[in-house]
Automatic annotation (TrEMBL):
Family, as annotated: Belongs to the RHPN family.
Name this polypeptide is given: Rhophilin, Rho GTPase binding protein 1
PANTHER family: RHOPHILIN, RHOPHILIN-1
Coiled-coil zones: 62-89
Domain spans labelled REM-1: 11-85
Keyword entries, A-Z: Coiled coil
CDD domains recorded: HR1_Rhophilin-1 (cd11633), PDZ_rhophilin-like (cd06712)
GO biological process terms on file: negative regulation of stress fiber assembly; signal transduction
Gene that encodes it: RHPN1
SUPFAM superfamilies linked to this entry: HR1 repeat, PDZ domain-like
Residue ranges occupied by any PDZ domain in the UniProt entry: 500-567
């Protein structure tokens, strides 16, 4: 099941079980896309024609297309329900987890659009940036096949971080590059297409969460170390899905819609709770009465998966979620409900409590153990009289057997779950264990009717956390940094053509004041001085000195170049920002924004309406000027606390 890791991503030609699954999923996605285009064309023809003969023929063709689509979606559902491929190879018997497959995408050729934008917006030869464009496209190709480990996660986050720079460099607010990003729905295979870079960001982040689910499912949960890794992976998956839910609206595909993401967050949290229960049962060596009751309460906590099931039955999610997922969640809800009653029975029947054990603390704990407390017998009687404990324990065992049988009944109704041998083995083992214990407790002379055991109050040793994605786990360098610092050279800034100014040193000075770094700003010119006569203006940025590029140069470096000119003078290449307070100031504030574009134009794929618009929330940086750090790089902004680097020459 392990993928072969290359320099970037993993080998797409390596035929592991997981890669074969992804290849089959990609093939079905393409077939679904083809059938949907055929259906759209047939529906248009049906509405447009007035010929009844043609209408009958088109209606017949539509029935065939819809039938094919249904078969393809059922085949894709079976692939998405193939949980065993992602499970651990350990021989330990654990209930399988539900992982997600990655979203598939098409190739995108950015060469021509980026070259054109560099030439038009930055005034440079786009062909000089072929190396950078190729590097970015290779990174995108690699992130389509990430390895199922930490390296794969870092690859996805690296690409996600590079998208931030791409957004800043090439995507102005009121214009797009004409590039279409195609992604397939993770569960249905339905294609979506947008020109918004936010759609690309969201899809990559969805794959980060999906990869975490696969990493969590593959952990060997027979030891505490594996359980802890699984808990961490599922919590991070929940955090990524929650982050998407909070930062997306009007997503074009169902897998990134609000109800679906809410369902996925709850599913991940429920799987975290399962792992916590497994760790409690593994580490609870103490056979004390209260210790066993705590295990029962932990199992009752996992029983709360019924909330996940309720989310899956909502109108927008019900027809979208695979039937096997809903069945698995229902099976697990009944399974852990049965386990809670089983461990309660073990605590009541297998322990002989002495008078010193029935202290006030034990009575208080037992009083809070059940959701409802029966009037008779009293708790003191139950704790001190073995026969009363046996009767209550038998009642719990009876409910455990009933719940186990219900879990097995739901399991038998799902064809895909019936194929999962490990799940069948777990259900059969726990059912037989409870049945044997019940038979052991059942006495021949016991003519009393078995009472109804009350439900068990849920209690957890560890509350699941939703861990927000850490975008700083991978420090990246802007691939297109040769274009200059983002504080000035970005898609949102506008400047005039590069001007060449020849400065001749006058009576001891050049007559200008410099401020800041990368690039250095001409903060002022002396009236009547050399700089003003040469055409230098306040607010110009120095991009080169005597042909040497100075976009990234520090204040001191530019000063040194100016001084080294001597009597012959220096040749400055400068640019002037147009309305730089509004343009660059906005860029300065946006440098620390992880998801920085607020509104995108959906002029993209045909058939997409403006309702499919994908919006990102803008979180403004209110700090003003100074130095802003983002993704491991430091940008010196042209405004703010820069008086300490101001000099006059």
């Amino acid at each position: 099941l392990t993928s072969v890791c290359l320099g970037y991503g993993c080998d797409p030609c390596c035929q592991t079980q997981r890669s074969k699954l992804q290849h089959r999923r990609a093939r079905i996605n393409q077939q679904i896309n083809k059938e949907m285009r055929m259906r759209a064309g047939a529906e248009n023809l049906f509405r447009a024609t007035t010929n009844n003969k043609v209408k009958e023929t088109v209606a017949l063709e539509l029935s065939f297309v819809n039938s094919n689509l249904q078969l393809l979606k059922e085949e894709l559902e079976e692939l998405n329900s193939n949980m065993e491929v992602y499970q651990t190879e350990s021989e330990s018997i654990n209930v399988p987890m539900i992982p997600l497959g990655l979203k598939e995408t098409k190739d995108v050729d950015l060469t021509v659009p980026l070259k054109d934008f560099i030439c038009e917006h930055y005034g440079e030869d786009g062909s000089l940036f072929e190396k950078e464009i190729k590097e970015f496209m290779e990174l995108r190709q690699a992130m389509r096949t990430p390895s199922r480990n930490q390296a794969g996660l870092e690859l996805l986050v690296e690409y996600y971080n590079q998208l931030y720079y791409l957004d800043q460099r090439f995507f102005p607010p009121h214009r797009n590059l004409g590039v279409h990003f195609h992604w397939y729905d993770s569960l249905t295979g339905v294609p979506s297409c947008q020109r918004a870079l936010a759609f690309e960001k969201g899809s990559v982040l969805f794959n980060v969460a999906a990869l975490y689910t696969q990493i969590g499912a593959r952990q060997d949960r027979s030891a505490t170390a594996g359980i802890d890794r699984a808990i961490d992976a599922f919590q991070r998956a929940a955090g990524a899905f929650h982050y998407l839910k909070e930062n997306f609206s009007n997503a074009p595909s169902l897998d990134m819609s609000g109800p679906s993401l809410c369902m996925l967050v709850r599913l991940m949290i429920a799987q975290v709770q399962e792992c916590v229960f497994e760790r409690v049962t593994l580490t609870t060596q103490d056979t004390h009465f209260t210790s066993q009751l705590q295990v029962a309460q932990e199992a009752a906590r996992v029983r709360g998966r019924v909330l996940v099931l309720q989310t899956m039955t909502q109108p927008m999610v019900k027809d979208y979620v695979p039937f096997s997922w809903a069945s698995m969640v229902q099976v697990k809800a009944e399974h852990f409900r049965a386990l809670s009653h089983y461990y309660a029975a073990v605590a009541l029947c297998n322990h002989t409590l002495q008078d010193e054990d029935c202290d006030e603390e034990t009575e208080k704990f037992f009083l809070q153990f059940h959701v409802t407390t029966p009037a008779k017998p009293t708790l003191s009687q139950v704790l001190r009289e073995p026969e009363e404990r046996r009767k209550l324990g038998k009642a719990h065992l009876r409910r455990a057997v009933i719940r186990h049988e219900e879990a097995m009944r739901v399991h038998s109704m799902c064809k895909i779950l019936r194929k999962m041998d490990i799940l069948q083995e777990v259900l059969s083992f726990t059912h037989k264990r409870s049945l044997d214990k019940y038979s052991e407790m059942d006495q021949e002379d016991d003519f009393d009717e078995t009472a109804e055991a009350p439900e068990i109050h849920s209690q957890s040793h560890q509350k699941p956390d939703i861990i927000t994605p850490n975008f700083f786990m991978v420090s990246v360098t802007d691939i297109f940094q040769r274009l200059g610092p983002l504080s000035v050279f970005c898609a949102r800034a506008r400047w005039g053509p590069v001007r060449v100014v020849c400065l001749q040193r006058g009576e001891g000075c050049l007559g200008l004041t410099l401020r800041g770094d990368s690039p250095v700003l001409v903060a002022g010119v002396v009236p009547g001085g050399c700089a003003e006569e040469a055409g230098l203006r306040e607010g110009d940025y120095i991009v080169a000195v005597d042909g040497e590029d100075c976009k990234w140069a520090k204040h001191g470096e530019v000063v040194h170049l100016l001084k080294s000119g001597g009597d012959r003078g220096v040749e400055l290449s400068v640019i002037t920002l147009h309305t730089h307070d509004a343009q660059v100031g906005a860029v300065s504030r946006s440098l620390s924004i992880p998801l920085c574009v607020c509104v995108y134009d959906m002029g993209g794929a045909k058939g997409q309406s403006s309702a499919s618009l994908l919006n990102w929330n803008r979180k403004k940086n209110r700090d003003g000027g100074g130095v802003t750090k983002r993704l491991g790089s430091t940008f010196s902004l042209p405004f703010g606390n820069l008086r300490d680097s101001e000099s006059m020459y």
